[in-house]
C-alpha cells in the first residue's frame, strides 16, 4: 500500500515550489501512485482505466514487465552520455527503428523529447536547402522551443517567439474547414504561400497526419500528396511529426503518414516510443543527414543506453503482443460504439480518428458547431468519478481525446463508452 503524502499535501507543495504555469486535469487532481498496463491507481488503491496514457507516454501499457526489465538491466550495467563511447543499445535500437521505415529513411538522430526532434528536423531542412521558410498547419502543435513554437499554430501555446520564416497554411480539417473533406483544395493554400509569400523556394513543410493537441483532426484525404507535391517542387523537405500518430497507434499503419500514402524526407517521433522513458528521434535519408557534419552536433543524453534499451524493448513488445493489430481491432470497435453514442446524443457533433487515436467533439448546436466547452470538462470530471480517464484538446477545448495504451481491450472500450453514455444521460 501507498504510504506517501496525500494529494492535498502534494498540491500544496506543488503550488509553493513549482512553476505557476504547471496545470493539471480535474478540479480535484488525481494522485497517481501506481500503474499497471491500461490501469492507474490512486493513493487509496482506487483503479482508473487510462484512456489517455498513450498520448502522454505509454505505448505497451504502464510498467510493462519486459520494458521494466530492459530498463533495470541497463541501468544496473551502465548509463552514460550517448556520445564519445560505443554502446550496443543505441545501435540496436536504431537498426530496429529503421526496419520500420519506408524508402531510404535509414539514418537516426536521437533526442530527449518531441520538441527537440522537431527543432532538429527543421534545422536540418533549413541547412539542407539553404532556405529559411517553413510551412506548417494552423492548429498544429510541434513543441515549445523557439523554432517549434513558431511552427505550432494555436495562440494558447505561443509566447512571443520570433516567428522567423514560418508560414501557417489552411488546416485541412474535414469537420470545421471551409472545403470539407477535399484535401486537394486545402493543399492549394500551400502552393499559394510558396507563390506569394516566399521566393518560390522553401526549406520545408511540417505536419502531423492526425493532429493530437489540435483535437484529433485527421487531415482531409488527398491533402498530404498534394501538399508534398508543391513543397517538393519548391525544393523543400517534407517532415512528418509522428509524435502522437506514429508507432502503430492508427492501427492500419505503423506511421501516420502512411494513412495518406506519402513518404516524407524526415520523420520525427517521441512520447510512446520509450513507453514513458524520455526519448525522441529524427529519421532521415543518408544524403540529408550529411548536413549535420558541417559543424559539431552534440546532445548529451539523446539516445543514451538506458532510453534506447527501453525503446528496443517497446518495439519487441509491440511485435510479440501484436499491438498494432490490437489498435486496429479494438480501436475500430471503440469508434463504432462512440459513433452509436453520437446517434443517441445531439451534443456529440463528431466522432473521428483512427485506431486508438480517437476524438469526440461536443457542440451545443450541431448546425453552428458551437463548442460545448463546459460540458466537455463536466463529462471528463464525471467519468473520472466513474473510474475512467480521458483527455481533452482542440482549440476550443471541446474535444475528448481517447488515446489509451495499445493493450486496451474490447471490455475496456465498453467500460469507457458506458461511462460516457451514463454521464451524458445524466446531464
Ligand atoms: N509534436 C506533437 C505532435 C506533440 O503532440 C508534442 C507534444 N504534445 C510534441 C511534438 C512535443 O513533444 P514534447 O512535449 O516531448 O517536447
Automatic annotation (TrEMBL):
It comes from Populus alba (White poplar). This is Uncharacterized protein. It comes from the Eukaryota.
